[in-house]
Structure formats: structure tokens, C-alpha cells
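ingest -> validate -> predict -> emit
validate: passed (alphabet ok, no gaps, 161 aa)
predict: started
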Amino acid sequence: MPDETTLPATDPSTLDVLVTLLDDGVAPPSYAHPGDAGADLTTTQDVELGPLQRAVVPTGIAIALPEGYAAFVHPRSGLAAKHGVTVVNAPGTVDAGYRGEIKVVLANTDPEHTVHLRRGDRIAQLVVQRVERARFLTARTLPGSHRGGGGFGSSGGVTQA
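emit:
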């Protein structure tokens, strides 16, 4: 149940998500700018990622998503471009039934430089989306499509020399 100081969203396109702060010094996820799809997640501890190393980094938050929704943990483009830091299992999936701490599996893809992250640094983005549940039906054959059975890379893209 939200605190009485927590007001429900007034914008019908906004979804209320309950957040538990597991660390006194952490802030809930927040959007840097109006219209942003991803809310920033921060680290609760200092992290040193050596060249080509990875680490599971705590965010100090747990959330309760309504059924029919999932949250996806995406890399931050600035960390990726400037330091080669990415989310290993991008996007990481937070299911509606998960109530544990959200942790981010970060990797330093730079082969030479160590990356230092400090407590409170923004390390990833959380995107909340409606998701459908599929009912998988077995079939002897599948209906045709334009692509047909063409697999990975079958639509081209890069011209080989």
C-alpha cells in the first residue's frame, strides 16, 4: 500500500509502480527528462570494472509491477559510448511477480581501461512495458510469410567486399 504522501498519477498514460527502497541512501528510479522511456537506476556501491570484466551491481530497489507488465533493464548510452560499459543480458527482464532487489549485470567491454563507478552513479535504465502472454499451439506446418524460413541475417544489410 502506498504511503499517504504518495499521490496517484493524474496522467492516464502513467502507471503506478510500488517501489521499496532497500538502502536508506538510494532514490527511487526517476526520469531525467519529460518523454524519456527509461527511468535511471543507480548503484548502491562503488564498483571497479577492469578490462573485459563483469559484475552484478545492486540498485537498492525492489518493485511490484501489475500483472501484464514487465520492466526491462537497458544499458545507458553514455556509459556505453564513453566507457564501453553495457548490460550483459540486455535487456534484463524484471517479471511482474519478482519482488527481489533489482541488480544489473554490467560488463566493461574496453580491453585496456578500468571503469570506476561510484555509489549513486546512474548505471542503467528501467523501461516498463505492457506485455502479452502467449498461448503456444503446436502445428504441423506454419502459414507462409514473405521471409519464409530465412534465418538470422537473411535480409542482408552489409555488403561483403
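The domain at 22-130 is CATH 2.70.40.10 (Deoxyuridine 5'-Triphosphate Nucleotidohydrolase; Chain A).
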